[in-house]
Design goal:
transmembrane helix; 766 residues; Membrane_comp_ABC_pdt; 13% strand; membrane; alpha+beta; elongated; six-stranded mixed sheet; disordered N terminus; ABC transporter permease
Length: 766
């Protein structure tokens, strides 16, 4: 009999629990929509991050160093050379660079000809780029364009050896840009860290809606307990309920997130062209299992974590002042740890501490400030407004904290992306300082060319040049075994082309001192690893000649892990073994053709390896702008969905307090004035959150550029803030508050319901 009664109770209990949703279907819809939105938020951002990674890989691939086939006689390549090579069994692909009469440079490629690259190497080495004119097009289209100039290259796969070539051809390196190296890795690391923050924001938004539903079901739980249903049974059915609802909502949420990310990355992204001025890459395919499992775990932890907390609450009951004190201690500890952390894991722990304690302190601080303002105000309506603000902050704690985190993340990402863009531009300008780059042919004497250019400089207006010698030196006193070799970058003369470099620290008149041979400059990586600064002496072995040279300056060198020494080429000993020599030339008025002809005659060659640095910079900037646009799209998506969640929660919660607000009308206040009070209340709430998000966003930016990058890569990014963007964020926050007030104005004309608390399932308000 008892078992039958238990079976009957177990059968009836689900219907009793779900009866709440029959009475309040909007609550079920709101919870389902929030799970759907949270899943779509994280899946979309995660997918966009994957797109950014794929886009960056494509960008690096587009400018990566490859090998090319050139004619032994130095003559320009033609289509007949491509045919001859393919008939000889050589895997070659045409690369046609075209400079149109108007517009940017285009690169024509033949994807079909590049199929042999993947077949021989096991992976595709061809530039996997959309042929949309930014900058890649089909080679047939490129060949038909009216152009100022065009040049054909024949790229060879990495598997091609010199012995594979027919007579009359040999291999050379082919590069369209300096190696981006760790600059891209740094960007992706910061994206991964911000993706974790997005997951936290999604969990907070979901938890806020679920707690509101629990508060509204409080009476139902009490009634079930009177009928003999234990708390354990209710909790087990709640777990099953949320799991079923999560499965129903997570799968379409993942699909919608992927669809939204793909839309932002391809055709649907045309709507963002007005914001970003460039199209976005389409995303790469990803599996479904990982995002579904991750979001299921987030839903369960966010919604059911209170079950464990409630069980431990009796053992861990901490008074409210003690909680605030603990949060303040954790906040201070996080700040100190972020400043002094010796490794990346400790920095991430510090960020977690700061965000957790900030989320704990922010509502309490706002409520305390509002309470203080109310106690000092003489106007009754002002006192009421500030008292009501304390109630709103307590009940909307989670969505408000989620909005604060989202705003902070948007501020940090905007500063990060803008900093990366400017850093990338400066880095390209530093590495591509001259208009043209001429490689000194094997066996040629670069000193003869230097003497000729020196003689021409007096008669050719605007001519600037320097000779660059590259090689390696040893650091006998290096702290780490892997740092005993450093790159050497020697210049003769120290021309105005490089004197515009930004130096992190330097002596007075550093370039004049370098030109006089009074010392060397070192890059930031070497300075950090060896703890060197201006005035210190660096021990170097150049060739077979050791010496100690004073450090004249430290320059940023983004995108490379190794140390580098910049010195005057006149100080190099004869025993120094140069790995390469080149000339960097800005030709001035006469143009480059006369200089090229003179150098060919001087060196006795029919053709030179010449690189137009202007078009190289244009190509590199164009392809990397795609990645930066994807990151902006990611932050835009996060902010839109966080704002939408706050709108939903604000509307639901304000509607539950319509009964209180209607009392103002009963007491004689006109509807218009009540609506005005609600408008001021909503604007104060969202505007205050934006103000509190500002220091958190600035601090997160500082952590990304001054702590994570130096610890991970050995170099830092400049810390730049953008007050104009702060104003945009403030306007957006006020727009959210205005929307909530307008929705609430409509609710004033409808019957009110009894108030419930979204933040405290067992505690009422007023």
């Amino acid at each position: 009999m008892r078992s039958a009664r238990s079976f009957s109770r177990s059968f009836v209990l689900p219907g009793a629990l779900l009866s709440h949703y029959r009475r309040h279907p909007l609550q079920l819809i709101a919870l389902a929509i929030m799970i759907l939105l949270a899943t779509m938020l994280w899946t979309g951002v995660n997918h966009l991050t994957s797109q950014a990674r794929a886009s960056l890989n494509q960008s690096e691939q587009a400018v990566a160093e490859r090998q090319q086939v050139v004619r032994a006689d130095g003559r320009a390549l033609a289509i007949e050379d491509f045919v001859s090579l393919r008939l000889a069994g050589v895997c070659a692909m045409p690369w046609l660079e075209v400079a149109p009469e108007t517009g940017n440079r285009l690169v024509g490629i033949d994807p079909l000809a590049g199929q042999c690259f993947g077949a021989k190497a096991g992976v595709s080495q061809t530039p996997d780029q959309p042929l949309n004119g930014k900058p890649f097009v089909d080679i047939h289209t490129a060949a038909g364009i009216s152009a100022r100039e065009s040049r054909l290259f024949l790229l060879a796969s990495d598997a091609t050896q010199a012995a594979d070539l027919p007579p009359g051809y040999h291999l050379k390196t082919f590069s369209t840009s300096p190696d981006t190296g760790e600059l891209g890795d740094s960007f992706l690391l910061n994206l991964e860290a911000l993706g974790v923050l997005v997951l936290l924001i999604a969990a907070l938004l979901l938890r806020s809606v679920y707690l509101l539903g629990l508060a509204q079901r409080r009476d139902s739980f009490a009634l079930l307990k009177r009928f003999g249903v234990s708390s354990g049974q209710v909790q087990r059915w709640l777990v099953l309920e949320i799991l079923v609802l999560a499965l129903v909502c997570v799968v379409p949420g993942v699909w919608l997130g992927r669809w939204l990310a793909a839309g932002l990355g391809s055709g649907f992204g045309n709507a963002l062209n007005g914001l970003f001025d460039i199209p976005l890459y389409a995303g790469q395919g990803q599996g479904w299992l990982t995002p579904v499992l991750v979001m299921l775990a987030v839903v369960v932890v966010a919604c059911l974590g209170d079950l464990l907390v409630l069980r431990l609450r009796g053992h861990l009951n901490v008074p409210m002042p003690a909680r605030a004190g603990l949060a303040a201690v954790l906040f201070s500890a996080g700040l100190v740890m972020a400043w002094l952390a010796p490794s990346l894991p400790w920095v991430f722990v510090a960020v977690a501490l700061v965000f957790a304690s900030a989320g704990w302190l922010t509502p309490a601080a706002v409520a305390q400030l509002a309470h203080w303002r109310a106690s000092r105000s003489a106007a009754p309506l002002t006192r009421w407004r500030y008292r009501e603000l304390t109630v709103l902050v307590r009940r909307l704690t989670l969505p408000l904290v989620a909005l604060q985190f989202a705003l902070a993340m948007v501020l940090a990402v905007q500063a990060l992306v803008t900093t990366f863009e400017s850093t990338f531009d400066r880095w390209l300008a530093q590495r591509l300082e001259a208009a043209y780059y001429v490689e000194v042919p094997a066996g040629a004497d670069s000193r003869e060319a230097a003497e000729w250019l020196t003689g021409q400089q007096a008669s050719v207006p605007g001519l600037q040049w320097h000779r660059a010698i590259r090689g390696q030196a040893r650091l006998p006193g290096a702290k780490h075994a892997g740092d005993r070799q450093v790159d050497v970058f020697a210049l003769t003369p120290v021309s105005p082309l490089i004197r515009g470099w930004t130096l992190l620290e330097a002596v007075d008149r550093p370039w004049e001192a370098l030109a006089a041979g009074d010392g060397v400059m070192i890059n930031e990586q070497l300075a950090r690893r060896e703890n060197l600064g201006v005035g210190d002496r660096v021990q170097l072995v150049l060739g077979d000649q050791p010496g100690a040279m004073p450090v004249l300056g430290v320059y940023p060198d983004y995108g490379r892990p190794v140390g580098e020494v910049l010195l005057n080429g006149a100080t190099l000993p004869d025993s120094f073994n140069a790995s390469s020599e080149s000339l960097s030339i800005t030709p001035g008025k006469p143009g480059m053709q006369s200089i090229t002809d003179a150098l060919q005659h001087l060196w006795g060659v029919q053709a030179l390896s010449l690189r137009d640095n202007g078009t190289v910079r244009e190509l590199a900037t164009g392809v990397f702008d795609q990645t930066f646009a994807l990151t902006r799209a990611m932050t835009l998506l996060t902010l839109i969905l966080a704002a939408s969640a706050l709108l939903m929660m604000g509307w639901v919660f304000f509607s539950t307090r319509a009964w209180y607000f209607r009392l103002l009308v009963v007491w004689g206040l006109p509807h218009r004035e009540v609506a005005g009070q609600l408008l001021r209340l909503a604007l104060t709430l969202t505007g205050g959150i934006a103000v509190l998000a500002l220091p958190l966003g600035i601090w997160l930016t500082w952590v990304l550029v001054h702590r994570i990058n130096p610890l991970a890569f050995g170099w830092s990014l400049p810390m730049v803030v953008y007050p104009a963007f702060w104003l945009e964020i403030a306007v957006l926050s006020l727009a959210i508050g205005l929307s909530i007030a307008l929705l609430m104005r409509r609710q004033l004309r409808k019957p009110g319901v009894a108030p419930v608390s979204a933040g405290a399932p067992s505690e009422g308000e007023r």
